[in-house]
Amino acid sequence: MPDYVIKTPKLPAVPVSGSDALFPVRRVYCIGRNYAAHAIEMGHDPDREAPFFFQKNPDNLDTSGTFPYPGKSSDVHHEIELAVALKSGGTNIPLDKALDHVFGYAVALDMTRRDLQGEAKKLGRPWEIGKAFERSAPIGSFLPASDIGHPDSGRVELKVNGETRQEGNLNQMIWKVPEMISYLSEYFELAPGDVILSGTPAGVGPVARGDTLEATVEGIGALTVKVS
């Protein structure tokens, strides 16, 4: 074992349903505007343009069930997402082989400091200040694809305090999971431990302290998060 000059940081990891083992996280890629209705509500053309991605930090993934309202923002939004975990990777992955690299799937939230993201957009700056803050990606347990297959349809819904805010279907994704994996692998060397957040349907909106978020993806499961 090598010696390090500081204490080794904890490896980010996510539980796996039906197992005591954890899924270690290497990178987190997020696709933007991957549902047409969400692209429209954000003021963009829903036509199938080339996909674009940004990143969250691996330790932004949080399994505590609590989302602490972050500082420096007064407009934090919820975005429900399907999370895709990779068990293997590579470069230039063929489309018809992309799903071979998937370990499993989970329900996740891409929490966004919308006011800070909007300011960054206006100035032509990166989005990390609005997207990659502490505990900004609540996530449930990964369900292995070996158990559930590869869902390409299923209701996606997010409720805030029992009221439905977001709803859609996995089959409404502009870029499907195999396409995202193949495209990303043209620009990055994907590897085991990579996680892809696959976009959110329409209906994103603000949260407040005390809110309860209930996120469900049909066939994958449910995630309940309390805003504190």
TrEMBL record:
Gene Ontology MF terms: acetylpyruvate hydrolase activity; fumarylpyruvate hydrolase activity; metal ion binding
This protein's name: Fumarylpyruvate hydrolase
Domain Fumarylacetoacetase-like C-terminal: 28-227
Root EC class: hydrolase
Keyword field: Hydrolase, Metal-binding, Pyruvate
Any Pfam family: FAA_hydrolase
Transmembrane segments: none
EC number: 3.7.1.20
